[in-house]
Every structure is written in C-alpha cells, then in structure tokens.
Amino acid sequence: MRMLQGLDKNYVPFFLFYVFSFMAIAIFTIFVNVYLYHQGFSISQIGILTALGPTISMLSQPVWGILSDRTNKRRILMIVLAGSAIISLAIPIHTAFFWLIIVLLLYWFFASSSLPLGDAITLQFLEGKSIKYSALRIIGAVSFGLTSAFAGLLLGGNIGRIFYYNAAFLTVTCLLVFFMPIQKKSKAEEQAQEPLQAQPQEQLQEQSGLKSLVKLLNNKVVLGVYLTSFIFGLTMSFLHNFFGIRMTEMGATEGQLGIALFISAFSEIPIFLTVDRVFGKRKPEHLLMLSAFFMGLRLIIMYFGETIILIYLAQTLQGVSFMLHFYFCIVLLHEHSPPHMKSTVQTVHAMIRMGGAAILGNLGGGFLAHQVGIQNVFLLLSVIVTSTCFVLPGVLILMHKVKNRNKSK
Question: Is residue 391 part of a domain?
Fold first, then answer.
C-alpha cells in the first residue's frame, strides 16, 4: 500500500501496458503450437515454424531499436503493436505450410520487439520514481498466469480463437501507448544523435567496442556464463514450445494446459520478491549449480510424468530453475564486465539465450523429437543441462580459489 500512495494517473498506462502485453503473450506463445499440432503438422514442421521467431528477432530488434532511438519511441512502439495485431488476424486464413512461414516471419518481425521497446520507455519513465521496474514485471507475471488459467474458458474448445484474442489484446496495448506521457530525451540519447565528429575521441573508442568485446571473451567467467546460458536457453525454448504438445498427446484440454502455465508463471513471483534477501548473500556460481539441479529434476519429472498432476509438479520448479539461473547470469556478467561494456555484454547474452539457443532448441529439438519422441528429448536435455551447468560453475569456483591463494602468497 505504501508503494501506491504516491501513484498518479501517469502510471496507469504503464501498469495496463504490462497487463495486456502479457495477456497477448500468454494466449499466443504456447497455444499457437497446439493449434499447429491440431492442424496436422509434424513435430519437425512445428520446430521449423517456432524457430522463425528467434531467427527474425535477431535481425528485427536492432532495426526497431535504432529507429526508436533515432525518432520517436512511442510512435515506433505503436507501429510494432499495430503491425502485430493486423498480421495475427492473417495467420488463420490458410493452413498451408509456406503461408504460415510467411505470416509468422512477418508477425515475429513486429511482435518480438514490442516488449523490449516497451521496457525502454518504461525504464526511462521510472527514473527517479518510487515504483520499481520489478513491480511492473510482477504484474506481467500475474497477468500471464491468470490469462493462462482462464484460457480454456476464453477459447471455448475452438483453439483458432487465439489469433483474434491476441489481436484484441495487442490493439488495447497499442492504444495504451498513446496515453503514456511524452518524455524528454536524456543526455545520453542526445549525445548518441550528435555527429560522430562532435563526440570525444575516448567516447568513440568505447563505442567501437569490437576489440573490447574480443578481449572480454578471454574472461573465463563471461565465457562460462554464456555457455551455461546457451544450454539453459536451448532447454527452455524446447520445453516452452513442446510441453504443450506433450500435454495434448496425454489428452489434456486447453484449460488444463492453461493451469500448467498459470503454475509456472506464479512460481516466478516468490523469486522476484525474495531473490536478493534469500539468495543475495550466496555466490552466484553456487546458485547457477542449484538452478541446474532443479532444471534437471524438472525435466526428469517431465520424462517420467504420465499424469497431469506430475506435469503440474514439474511446472512449480520454473521459478527455482529458469528464473534463478537467469537472474544470477545477469549478476555475474555485470560483476565481470568493464563499465563501458556492461550493456554490450548483456545484449550479447540476450542474443545467445533468445537467439542462437532458441533457434537450436526449436529447430534441432523439433527434428530430434520427431525421431525419438518429446519425452526422450526431455531425458537427453536433463543430462546435458545438469552436467554442463554443474561442471562449468564448479570450474569457476576452483578458479576463484586458485586466484585467491595466489593473491595471499
């Protein structure tokens, strides 16, 4: 309640933006694969179609980001949201494989950048404010969970409705952006738009960060985090895109699938609320290993699970597996990167996790699941994620110990 005492009307569009953004994400991302499965596409074909999102996002996000920084952030965000809504309506027009490739490429060209652009506007607005960004993301998680839980009622047995609900939620989100207060450009943004000749030579050297990035990649901690994050990203992309199909194969309804998503979303909220207080005093390397243990356990349950209850149990581990790992990857990268490289390091991390790893998880995972079955891929991933994410953090711990001994001598 204290947090809301200073709340004014300018906050409302931002709160509602995350409510409707995550409603659209919930109704589309998982159920679109179930829709494709019901249309008779094979697991490998679904893998190809789901790989389109991360593939096109690696190209589109820089484009929309540059346009947003160079022109008007709100206008570009509204274009992205309107484009996503219009193309969403075009997806169910035809079920031909090549038609879906075209419309899904167009859809993700717009949709993959909507949340990052919204985050950029929100973070700028919240500078110096009492309400923190984490509060808005919690609202997003709650919205995602509740939408998932009631998805069965919304769809009413007709899964094709996801595209119309998605378009409606995106349209409302687009209208909310119009009501976001206009913000003045920061000094950093003004400097970024200055001609290169007008910028100090030292600043130019920092901005041309290719040499710095190559040098940074010699840092074993950064490389170790990138590799563990790649393994987790691969695992989560496959789990995210194919566990709904696995539940459908078990005879689950859209409502039961929605409850599974509700459970996973709400399992992240305690991590958001307690991560610094409960885990903050522990070494991030130890916590990467702990999250790997829970991810392996989650995948093992998914492998052996033949009942809906066991799938629900596996979903309760989302917070202590994925979210815990993601949070402390960010912490380690922040601690082990120089000040002028911190944004670049995090951007590269996002591209590895949500780009390359997601493409391999969707495309390679889809082909493998077509050959051996989704359950067997869960088992294989459990071995990979636990071995890799236990060994590498362990190596980092040993390196720290050796370094400390050398210093003491």
Answer: yes
Question: Which residues contact residue 16 at a Cβ distance below 8 angstroms, ignoring those fewer than 6 apart?
Answer: 172, 176
Q: Quick one: DSSP state of residue 200?
A: -
Hey, what long-range contacts does 258-261 have (CB within 8 A, 24 or more apart)? Answer: 258/147, 258/148, 258/149, 258/150, 258/151, 258/152, 259/148, 259/149, 259/312, 260/148, 260/308, 260/311, 260/312, 260/315, 261/26, 261/30, 261/144, 261/145, 261/148, 261/149, 261/151, 261/315
Residue 249 lies in domain: 212-409
Are residues 174 and 218 part of one domain? no
| Mean pLDDT confidence for 283-293 | 79
Do 298 and 359 reside in the same domain of the chain? yes
The domain total for the chain is 2
Residues 166 and 217 in one domain: no
pLDDT at 188 over 90: no
Residue 1 lies in a domain: no
Task: Report the sign of the C-alpha dihedral through residues 139, 141, 147, 150, in that order.
Answer: negative
Burial class (CB in 10 A: 0-12, 13-18, 19+), 120: middle
Sign of CA dihedral 188, 191, 192, 193: positive
Q: Report d(CA 62, CA 347) in Å as an integer.
A: 10
Confidence band of 93 (pLDDT split at 50, 70, 90): very high
Shared-domain flag, residues 168 and 218: no
Give the residue-averaged pLDDT of 388-400: 67
Whether residue 228 lies inside any domain: the answer is: yes
399 pLDDT tier (thresholds 50, 70, 90): low
Query: What is the model's pLDDT at position 63?
Result: 81
Quick check: 339 and 348 in contact, CB under 8 A? no
Contacts of 214 (CB under 8 A, 6+ apart): none
User: Averaged over 201-216, what is the pLDDT?
Assistant: 54
pLDDT for residue 409 is more than 60: no
Lowest mean pLDDT of 82-96, 112-126, 202-216, 331-345, name the range.
Answer: 202-216
Q: Retrieve residue 366's tokens.
A: 């889809």
pTM of the model: 0.74
Other beta carbons within 10 angstroms of residue 76's beta carbon come to 21
CB-CB neighbours of 109 under 10 Å: 22
Domain assignment present for residue 193? The answer is no
